[in-house]
Backbone:
DNA sequence: ATCATATCGAAAACGATTTTCAATATTTTT
DNA sequence: AAAAATATTGAAAATCGTTTTCGATATGAT
């Protein structure tokens, strides 16, 4: 079981885990051990920006943490609904999640269909276009996804066709 | 080889089925009955622009045609690889196909996440942006997909939240 | 403590798609 | 026109990422 006195209560600095706890509690949800571990992975940018459920499972397993896919998927859904994560589908049939830092501008993706490398780019006009097109049709826009598929320079070089 | 006197040779106007046959034959493939039926659906625009495998199955079934999903999926893949159809993923985990009329400019989609209504729009700057971003990163662009998700005017009205 | 509720993991279910495989159809070769 | 080679078919099983079910467990509130 977890310790009674939260490890963060001894700090002065506002503690991110506590913020997440609050967010979850507001919805009657709990910041469990597993959910905390998942959040830690997203906050550690060295582990990648775009993580799939599989990636998370691998990360935690390699640290010796035992977690089930059901728990991972459930946590991801919750975190998306709370606005903590953003869900994107870079490869068909596979969802990726990224930390939804509110200060970070919305961005779009370039995907290499060979090696799977993902690069981001920002482009304000995309959002402008989206808004304009949505308005033209009396749509209320909720989100948009713009993805460019191609071959990265390395994969272009290694391809002989 | 193919029939000696092609049924279209009596026409002056070039016959589309024969063009498809040619296209397929060039790859050692055959324009079978089932493939022809599928093509007919796409050419009849009153049946919708964006069709899923399920849609095609329903259309053919309602006409009394018997066809299996395996055949539909196989045909769709072939037609995409030949450039006859274009594949898009408007809803997660579900692919739609549209006739890839070469004279029609590339277009993008607005999807109502409530009722599923799909509207198209053209916007040349999307392609321009794609090319620019791809070049910036030494990507060779193969395709891009831009989709705006939101609520259509009707679904906005019927929603009380 | 006790009760209500949230969460967990394992395993089964899902849904769209893909593959396998034996039977059938079409084309090409004789 | 038969035989041989090849492509296509449908039914059923397999995939794959994801979701749900369910009984066991953990947490939070009274």
Residues:
């Amino acid at each position: 079981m977890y310790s009674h006195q939260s490890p963060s209560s001894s700090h002065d600095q506002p503690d991110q885990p506590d913020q997440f706890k609050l967010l979850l509690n507001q919805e009657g949800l709990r910041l469990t051990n597993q959910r905390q571990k998942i959040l830690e992975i997203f906050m550690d940018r060295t582990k990648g920006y775009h993580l799939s459920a599989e990636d998370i499972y691998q990360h935690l397993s390699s640290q010796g943490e035992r977690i089930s896919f059901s728990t991972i998927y459930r946590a991801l859904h919750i975190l998306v609904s709370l606005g903590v994560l953003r869900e994107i589908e870079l490869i068909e049939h596979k969802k990726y999640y990224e930390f939804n830092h509110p200060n970070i501008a919305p961005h779009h993706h370039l995907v290499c269909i060979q090696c799977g490398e993902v690069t981001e780019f920002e482009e304000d006009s995309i959002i402008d276009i989206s808004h304009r097109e949505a308005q033209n049709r009396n749509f209320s826009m909720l989100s948009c996804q713009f993805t460019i598929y191609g071959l990265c320079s390395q994969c272009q070089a290694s391809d002989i066709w």
In short: Chain A has six helices and five strands. Residues 15-104 of chain A form a domain with the Arc Repressor Mutant, subunit A fold (CATH 1.10.10.10).
